[in-house]
DNA sequence: GAAAGCACTTTCCTTGAGGAAACTACGTAA
DNA sequence: TTACGTAGTTTCCTCAAGGAAAGTGCTTTC
């Protein structure tokens, strides 16, 4: 019989572990943080704006990641009634709650770089 | 000629974006946060302890992820002079600086779950 | 001397993430 | 009428992440 875990076998740990998996699954992939970060900085942006802002991303991935983020209510998509139709992507109120997390991620990375090189 | 980005074209944004990529690259994969979280909770743990604590992980991935984390100075590996040799994995001082990030990740996930269901 | 525990490594395999390029569709400006 | 800008979708391809299972080497216990 397999031995049971000790540390992670408390309800609080299970919930925490599950929560981390949830968050990482919602924010999975190479581009989500970049898109969210750009939309937090830039307020309202079109598809082509995002394509230009986010260095290296292609149309397929941008389109797919935007759909994912919209599905999870982190960003909103609004089709504007302009001559060549334009789309406005913006961060939602809920998406904005990720700002502390993104800041933490960024500042940890900056410190890491300094401690490795400096 | 390709238009330039506007929002992300400031040095501070470039640095932030790079920092986020750095952090995510160090903490990439399915298991790093679970391993780090468990070691923060559990202090000193052996290979088999971790295998039991982290639900679903296999020996190959555990071994590989532990090597990654050790290489990046986030955990330390100490071979003990016991009869069947045992190994003590523990979080380093530097690895412990990830605690706020992990907490933020966990609490965001918990809030997300509540706001979706509750 | 057989089994079981520790700590891994190796091999083989599948799936999915992600990139490149082409294509759709509509409207405007030159 | 040709080109450009908007906003994507579709197809094809590759590579790396990750899982399963078996093997390695050592030691202690039954």
What would a concise description of this structure say?
2 copies of one chain form a homodimer. The first copy, chain A, is mostly helical and 118 residues long.
Features:
two-stranded antiparallel ribbon; Arc Repressor Mutant, subunit A; DNA-binding; mainly alpha; 118 residues; homodimer; 59% helix; 6 helices
The helix-strand sequence of chain A is: HHHHEEHH
Largest interface: A-B, 47 and 47 residues
| Helix share, percent of chain A | 55-70%
Q: What's the alpha carbon Rg of chain A, rounded to whole Å?
A: 18 Å
Q: Say what the CATH topology of chain A is.
A: Arc Repressor Mutant, subunit A
Strand content of chain A: 5-15%
How far the N terminus sits from the C terminus of chain A, by CA atoms, comes to 50 Å
Note the total helix count of chain A.
6
What is the total tally of β strands of chain A? Answer: 2
Assigned CATH architecture of chain A: Orthogonal Bundle
Broad shape of chain A: globular
Please identify the top-level CATH class of chain A: Mainly Alpha
């Amino acid at each position: 019989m397999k031995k049971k875990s000790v540390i992670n076998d408390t309800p609080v740990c299970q919930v925490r572990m599950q929560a981390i998996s949830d968050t990482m699954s919602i924010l999975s992939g190479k581009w989500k943080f970049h898109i969210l970060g750009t939309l937090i900085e830039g307020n309202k942006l079109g598809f082509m704006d995002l394509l230009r802002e986010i260095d290296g991303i292609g149309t397929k991935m941008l389109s797919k990641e935007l759909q994912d983020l919209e599905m999870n209510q982190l960003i909103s998509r609004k089709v504007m009634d302009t001559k060549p139709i334009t789309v406005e992507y913006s961060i939602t109120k809920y998406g904005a709650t990720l700002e502390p997390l993104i800041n933490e991620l960024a500042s940890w990375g900056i410190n890491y770089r300094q401690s490795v090189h400096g």
